[in-house]
Amino acid sequence: QVQLVESGGGLVQAGGSLRLSCAASEVTFSRYAMAWFRQAPGKEREFVAAISRRGGSTYYADSVKGRFTISRDTARNTVYLEMNSLKPEDTAIYFCAASLLFGRVAASDCAYWGQGTQVTVSS
Fold this sequence. Notes:
The chain is mostly beta strands. It has strands at residues 4-7, 10-13, 18-24, 33-39, 46-51, 58-60, 68-73, 78-83, 92-99, 110-113, 117-122. Strands 2, 4, 5, 6, 9, 10 and 11 form a seven-stranded mixed β-sheet that branches. A four-stranded antiparallel β-sheet has the order 1-3-8-7, with no helix packed on it. The model has no long low-confidence stretch (mean pLDDT 95).
């Protein structure tokens, strides 16, 4: 079983940056593609970005393309989400997830989830 723990959320002004981290407890971390999702109040959980098992391929939602960067450090069992040019509409709880599939995965495609970290962008 893979346990995922997110960190790095917080309050930032519009135009600012944050870097989220997701640490995995399991040495088989490299078996999984990793993804970030987010959920704003009253809205469904939505896909943000994904990275392949070895980190060679990435995929982004159109709403974050060019502003967010997903990466992974296999030696540290950690995946990151670098978020730049943040907008108030990026405000949400951000979750990392592990999946055996890669691409614009659905939440139901993910086997393991972190507890989430709050990102708030003020205008």
